[in-house]
């Protein structure tokens, strides 16, 4: 399995009109541009994607749908609560991702949980995987994702694709 861990793109600040709660924070114009650049880079490099799983929070879901608008326009992301802020349960998330159809899965989430999950998968120390907004880590597994079973293939920040 190949797992692409994606931190959501740039979002508006809490309290911006229309974003009264953290759940409702939506992408900025720059966040939409980051998402499009990432999707186009995947397409240009012919990186396969079978499924996209997202946090249910608006900014992550918008990032996921923006990616899919380029890759698979008629497909919607799957949402999963363990990708939401402060909901990470690594074993539960890995079990779920292992059941998602396909070998190439994108998971869109939030910091610090996304970094913590990547560190758990790679068996590395805390703080070793600092995701910027719209950054992507590609982690390879011989089977389903599990603790310390992944190998980091590559990690890019949004500056690499914009």
From TrEMBL:
Q: Which InterPro entries match?
A: His_Pase_superF_clade-1 (IPR013078), His_PPase_superfam (IPR029033)
* SUPFAM superfamilies the record matches: Phosphoglycerate mutase-like (SSF53254)
Q: What is this protein called?
A: Histidine phosphatase family protein
> Which species is this UniProt entry from?
Gemmata algarum
């Amino acid at each position: 399995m190949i797992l692409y861990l994606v931190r959501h793109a740039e979002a508006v600040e809490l309290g911006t009109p229309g974003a009264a709660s953290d759940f409702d924070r939506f992408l900025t114009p720059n966040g939409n541009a980051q998402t499009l650049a990432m999707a186009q880079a995947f397409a240009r490099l012919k990186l396969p994607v079978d499924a996209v799983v997202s946090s249910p929070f608006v900014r992550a879901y918008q990032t996921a749908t923006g990616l899919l608008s380029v890759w698979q326009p008629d497909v919607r992301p799957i949402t999963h609560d363990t990708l939401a802020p402060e909901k990470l349960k690594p074993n539960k998330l890995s079990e779920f991702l292992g059941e998602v159809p396909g070998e190439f899965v994108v998971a869109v989430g939030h910091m610090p949980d996304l970094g913590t999950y990547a560190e758990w998968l790679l068996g590395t120390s805390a703080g070793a995987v600092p995701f910027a907004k719209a950054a992507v880590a590609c982690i390879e597994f011989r089977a389903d994702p599990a603790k310390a079973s992944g190998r980091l293939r590559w990690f890019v920040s949004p500056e690499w694709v914009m």
